[in-house]
């Protein structure tokens, strides 16, 4: 679930991240808000564009699956915020 918080003139949006799909949506929106293409983002971090695409499409890796499993077990909520959104 995403929400908008208004403080003065700045709008801050946040994403409650509970699975790789939502994480991918948030990362894709942040990348687009930063004015970057997938290729530009990939070049900046030294990976193939396909990696960025898979991440933004919520590809579930073993590491991400286990991370979200640990978060659920410990009742920890992940919230991403950015002034760019």
From TrEMBL:
Residues 29-81 form the HTH cro/C1-type domain. InterPro entries: Cro/C1-type_HTH, Lambda_DNA-bd_dom_sf. This is Antitoxin HipB. SMART domains: HTH_XRE (SM00530). It comes from Ferrimicrobium acidiphilum DSM 19497. The gene is hipB. PROSITE patterns: HTH_CROC1. CDD domains: HTH_XRE. One of its GO terms (molecular function) is DNA binding. It comes from the Bacteria.
């Amino acid at each position: 679930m995403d929400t908008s918080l208004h403080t003065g003139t700045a709008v801050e949006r946040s994403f409650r991240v509970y699975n790789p799909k939502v994480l991918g949506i948030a990362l894709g929106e942040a990348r687009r808000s930063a004015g970057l293409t997938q290729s530009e983002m990939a070049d900046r971090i030294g990976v193939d564009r396909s990696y960025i695409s898979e991440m933004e499409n919520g590809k579930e890796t073993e590491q991400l699956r286990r991370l979200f499993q640990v978060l659920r077990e410990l009742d920890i909520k992940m919230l991403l915020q950015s002034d760019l959104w």
